Structure to design on (122 residues):
């Protein structure tokens, strides 16, 4: 299983970024996927998740309405569109594979990538 994130960088408050995750090594459509983040000095936080078929998604309260998760199982890709970024969104973002097709707060994560760093600062 491999998950490789890209697209991070430095952006001004109010700006946008799209993170990408290239996925390989398993049948993508059978599993939910997630975006996690880790802020400096803090633990991992679940940002968003999407079901294996892409029809059901969820978001942390802190990003709902600003971030959009999407996936393309044929292209083996996961994305996170981030709009109206705030300094508190500064973190390393990871994509992750769930153990199951559907994802809820208790769903176990089986694999995650190395992460891509996002810095929101003027």
């Amino acid at each position: 299983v491999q998950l490789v994130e890209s697209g991070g960088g430095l952006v001004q408050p109010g700006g946008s970024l799209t993170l990408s995750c290239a996925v390989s090594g398993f049948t993508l459509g059978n599993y939910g996927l997630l975006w996690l983040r880790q802020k400096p000095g803090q633990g991992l936080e679940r940002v968003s998740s999407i079901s294996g078929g892409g029809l059901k998604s969820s978001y942390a309260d802190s990003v709902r309405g600003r971030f959009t998760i999407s996936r393309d199982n044929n292209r083996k890709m996961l994305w996170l569109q981030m709009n109206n970024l705030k300094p508190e969104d500064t973190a390393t973002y990871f994509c992750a594979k769930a153990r199951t097709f559907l994802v809820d707060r208790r769903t176990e994560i089986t694999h995650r990538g190395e992460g891509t760093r996002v810095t929101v600062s003027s």
In short: Residues 98 and 109 are 5 Å apart (CA to CA). The two ends are 37 Å apart (CA to CA).
